[in-house]
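Hey,
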Amino acid sequence: MSETNPAAAEVAAPHRYTAAFAAEIEARWQDFWDADGTYAAPNPKGDLAGDPELVAKPKKYVMDMFPYPSGAGLHVGHPLGYIATDVFARFQRMTGHNVLHTLGFDAFGLPAEQHAVQTGEHPRVTTEAAINNMKSQLRRLGLGHDKRRSFATIDPDYYKWTQWIFVQIFNSWYDDEAKKARPISELVARFESGERAVPGGRSWDALSAAERADVLGEYRLAYASDAPVNWCPGLGTVLANEEVTADGRSERGNFPVFKAKLRQWNMRITAYADRLLDDLNELDWPEAIKLQQRNWIGRSEGARVDFPIDGEAITVFTTRQDTLFGATYMVLAPEHPLVEKFTPAAWPEGTHDVWTGGHATPGEAVAAYRAQAASKSDVERQAEAKDKTGVFTGAFATNPVNGEQIPVFIADYVLMGYGTGAIMAVPAHDTRDFAFARAFELPVRCVVEPSDDRGTDASTWDDAFVSYDAKIVNSHGEDVSLDGLGVTDAKARITEWLARKGIGEGTVNFRLRDWLFSRQRYWGEPFPIVYDEDGIAHSLPESMLPLELPEVEDYSPRTFDPDDADTSPETPLSRNQDWVDVTLDLGDGRGPRPYRRETNTMPNWAGSCWYELRYLDPHNSEKLVDPEIEQYWMGPRAGQPHGGVDLYVGGAEHAVLHLLYARFWSKVLYDLGHISSPEPFHKLYNQGMIQAFVYRDSRGFPVPATEIEERDGAFFHNGEQVKRELGKMGKSLKNAVTPEAICEEYGADTLRLYEMAMGPLDVSRPWDTRAVVGQYRLLQRLWRNVVDEATGEVTVVDTEPDETTLRALHKAIDGVRQDLEGLRFNTAIAKVTELNNHLTKTGAAVARPVAESLVLLIAPLAPHIAEELWRKLGHTDSVVHQDFPVADPRYVVDETVTCVVQVKGKVKARLEVSPAISDDELEKVALADEKVVAALDGAGIRKVIVRAPKLVNIVPA
């Protein structure tokens, strides 16, 4: 049958494994699996409870990161992680585990809303259509998901519990003594009893309801506040720091982002900074991800110092309190709340011209500079620019160690997102402060003795001297002196002095900021919050959840000019007055009262903060999750002290977004007693990316990759030469390949094998459609080793295999088992291929034990063909739950191994010896070899080094 004449081959081999035949068996087995509930994972109790024997097996919880259902559908790069977790989950089932593996949809998000803004079509319509399309695409891949457990975050039955969790967080505070969250009612009780002093010194009973709400707002884990935020007019919403790119634009849509002051909801994630850091040590995560989280949290030890100003104080955090005597000016972030308070109406007498920025008054200077800083990203503001910018506020603060009056500036290199948003500037020993001082003609005072020959007169220096291992100088006051001390001792002495004086204390600071949780959009979870006549926020009782999104006529925010920073958002929900203004009885004993609903919505991250819990118990309408079910699947156990999902696979881009937020929510729920696992994901694995070639014309625009012609190493589109580069795969780059296209040409099992065989799972790799055929041929050869292509009959024989085949089989079993356990799918496929090729080359009928083991080996990787062959081999049960083969150690060890014999460090012989040979026996065999004897040429032997069974090194006398 000629491979060059496919039509003739089809006639002569009607039972050949072809793309059409693959499509037929794949659809048939997918239908069977759905009808049979093959992948249903039983819970220990509840409406998903199943076979007690299956529940009694060791469990394995395998998860993918939530996919967003894009209207563009999937390309072949998207399923890489889904196929990988499916292979691993199938392997775990076959090794005796009760496996939970399912997939839902993270369906709230800006793309659907942007479409709604442009077309007027409800985002639910386009989102549900995208979900249905994605389900169809994923089903065709044969993924073994428990479909009973699937859901979308836009389902009211799901976001009821997202809202419920928000209520729990809102009604909690972090007890620093207990190091955990507690109900806010306990804090109120402490205030009422006097056990805890009320801030400000008044009694709790003396406070009005609004004053009490303000006090509690300083403690709640979810709170609203007026604060500088990232305002993106182009999206009509504010963004978290993590959603703004390094160049100051929105991660979604690439719109400019500005600083603005708005009242927003926040999550007090900073309360958990220490625990978020410490618990990383017990997680099986890539070190690169752990490092990103550690850097983002940014723990640093130092001191808080108060600089008096006009009867109040500017508080700074510094890690170099030992240099306090060298502070010659202060800098506040332009957004600092004290800037306006301390800015005088006129410039003080003697103000340097370079300090004013050319403005007539401090107010004008500050306003102009704030507007300039608002257009820069945090990264741009902290970049080492040649020209330092800033402006004098017109105010002076007092250096507490020496009483000096030092000027207070604002400058964009200081951020509200770190420390207190204010710094003491020690220009002699900080590079940026030095450059700023030179630009604004400010004094530079040496307080750390240089180790070079520059001397201590800092006015003559060309740059700052920075050292953590030097002697402190010029640092003495009336009742404290640091002169002659090293940095560490100086820090300790000045910190003790500050605390004794009541103007500072040793403290720990974090780079991490509280999580901005409000979005001024329609397509998100409504907040379960209402406001009474006094503006006090109240959470809705559980009986009123879910609070569903109302219908609106216009999905657009009021402002949509991306370059207009001087705007403020108006949310689509605020325009539905009948929904906003309501009369409710909240069950608090006050009866029906008028309220105003919160008109912001939650960010799209909310639903993905806890979805691992809903998979466990998706139909529970009474509880977030049944405690026994959560304990079974996610509770702490040996090797997993914090519990969590056994394997979580997804992209590394979520290191400080989803992963940090989900950890925070888990810890709050754990503290409040709702779950047993303080960490959501025990093992994290980051898959690489499937890349594709992008072809660009002379304008730099992508052209369709399918229309490219290659000639003599160059690439042409419609006769014009184009440039080729390796990049992402996507519709906009015109290089996307759909899974359907590959399935149509080769079948889903071939696609699965190719994606797993392309290279290590955690490494990015280029897509090459031409190479897919290699895995297709593997499946064809596998099929031919079991089935006669002409008759469709099984050709295996009921005889024992020869020893050579047994060794090939058991080595493959041993290697594939280890590779699948270690997520090394590419090498597992290589070992299956090697075994299959061995059987093909023998030309003899395959022994039944070998054929059955081969089918079981490939079953996790290519489940459809494995299921079909398993039935053809006479079995009536699904291959999905069969035992994975176990290697016989007798056949895994080679009959012989090659031993290298060296004389004077050069290889003189290679010996085939038993793997079990002893050192003494190997030495005798090596010394007797004729090539070794010739190499020694009668010379005596000074030393023989033996490393049985693979090396003998002979050193002549």
